[in-house]
Amino acid sequence: KGPHEKYKFMKLSKISPIKFFHRSVKKPGQAPGTIIQGADDETEPTEVEIISYDLDAYSKNILINEESIEPYINKNVSTWINIVGLRDIERIKKISEMFKLSHLLIEDVLHTSQRPKYELYGDVLFIVVKMFNLTPDKEINVEQVSVVIKKNLIITFQEKKGDVFDPVRNRIKEGGQRMRSMGCDYLANALLDTIVDYYFVILEEVGERIERLEDELLKGPTPDTLHKINTIKKESMLLRRSLWPLRDVINRFEREESDLVQNETRPYIRDIYDHVVQSIEAIESYRDVLSGMVDLYLSSVSNKMNAIMKVLTIIATIFIPLTFVAGIYGMNFKYMPELDWHYGYYGVWGVIIAIVLVMIYYFRRKKWF
Fold it and tell me: Among 87, 250, 288, 315, whose CB has the most other CB atoms within 10 angstroms?
């Protein structure tokens, strides 16, 4: 189950940092539900895609203006409205008013720093999740996806183009009987299931990076190694912050007492819950490994420093007696008994060499090097 595409993992030096904290744009004291532009400047111009289907029919359209959306209001067939880009606030407000969506809901859609959450607004189920995917360069991208569930209607809000939903679109287009015959709660399940499947792809990539870092630590860590460890720790922390609340979201979605969630869909939602739990277990194990890698790095650096100091100490220890001998015969006394020896110079060198050989033999017997 899930994507089976094979990836050529990138070099660790190309890992790009992920934005963890978003600058708040809501001023203290503003009324709840105040709709303002989010702080993320990377949001794209708003585009709207509409997919409508039932067991016998399928259509896909790009929305030109808000008036053309009216035929899809209270329609008896299943409809998926995908809104990409959150820059055009007025357009989003018009669409939300046409479908009578709460202003609190739209506030959460536009503020893309939301943690995964689940809310019930009357006849509307609202879910916020984090969607992860990999770029062709194997960099990790994350964005907020908001899912609005109504009777015969799904509305999704994305920050930018490019998502992981193409398998779902293909299943709808190719006429899968289960997808076409079941309601929009099953479509929401399929979207969430695809998002969770890609968590495994990200976890696989993180696991590969950790394995390569372990090899690098054993062979010889460098200052850049610590930077790589910290980068992966940040990515793992973001995954953890996205997965733990998601477990509660999926659990509430499966247990919700609402006509919007059919009993036939609940087993599939429980399957997503199991996958989220597996992902949490994996990220927790990675977290422990990364904490150990920091200790291993510090130990490796300390051992390397100790080895250097050991070599320098041995060299200094060997030269101490040699310096003593040279110091004695470097004294400028007029009457020294060895000054008149014909072979005095060679004798001193013999003593020096003998001292060096004896000390080296002693160090080797002690296994100091």
Answer: 250
- Cα–Cα dist 351/369, whole Å: 23
Contact, 35 vs 46, CB < 8 A? no
Q: Is the dihedral of CA 202, 205, 209, 215 positive or negative?
A: positive
Work out the widest C-alpha separation in the chain, in whole angstroms. Answer: 120
> With helix as H, strand as E and coil as C, how does 296-331 read?
HHHHHHHHHHHHHHHHHHHHHHHHHHHHHHHHHCCC
Helix (H), strand (E) counts: the chain? 8, 7
For residues 297 and 218, is the Cβ–Cβ distance under 8 A? no
CB 191 within 8 A of CB 70: no
| Residues 6 or more apart in contact with residue 236 via CB below 8 angstroms | 206, 283, 286, 287, 290
- CA angle, corner 169, sides to 198 and 90, nearest 5? 90
Reported pTM: 0.75
Helix or strand or coil: residue 127? strand
Q: Per the structure block, which two tokens stand in for 195?
A: 């998002």
- For residue 48, how many C-alpha atoms fall within 13 Å in the half-sphere facing its CB? 20
Q: Stretch 104-118: mean pLDDT, rounded? A: 90
Angle at 206 between CA 203 and CA 211, to 5 degrees: 125
Closest C-alpha to 16, from 167, 135, 154, 194? 135
Report residue 166: phi and psi, to 5°: -60, -40
Q: Tell me which of 94-103, 312-321, 334-343 is least confident.
A: 334-343
- As a whole number, the mean pLDDT across the chain is 83
41 vs 291, more confident: 291
> Strand order of the sheet with strand 153-158?
58-62, 47-53, 78-84, 153-158, 140-150, 124-134, 117-121
Is the dihedral angle over the CA atoms 39, 100, 82, 188 positive or is it negative?
A: positive
Query: Cα dihedral sign for 344, 345, 349, 355?
Result: positive
- Burial tier of 342 (Cβ tally within 10 Å: 0-12, 13-18, 19+): exposed
Q: How many CB atoms sit inside 10 A of residue 121's CB?
A: 14
| Token pair belonging to 107 | 């506030």
- What is the torsion angle, in degrees rounded to the nearest 10, for the CA atoms of residue 76, residue 72, residue 84 and residue 236? -20
pLDDT value at 106 more than 80: yes
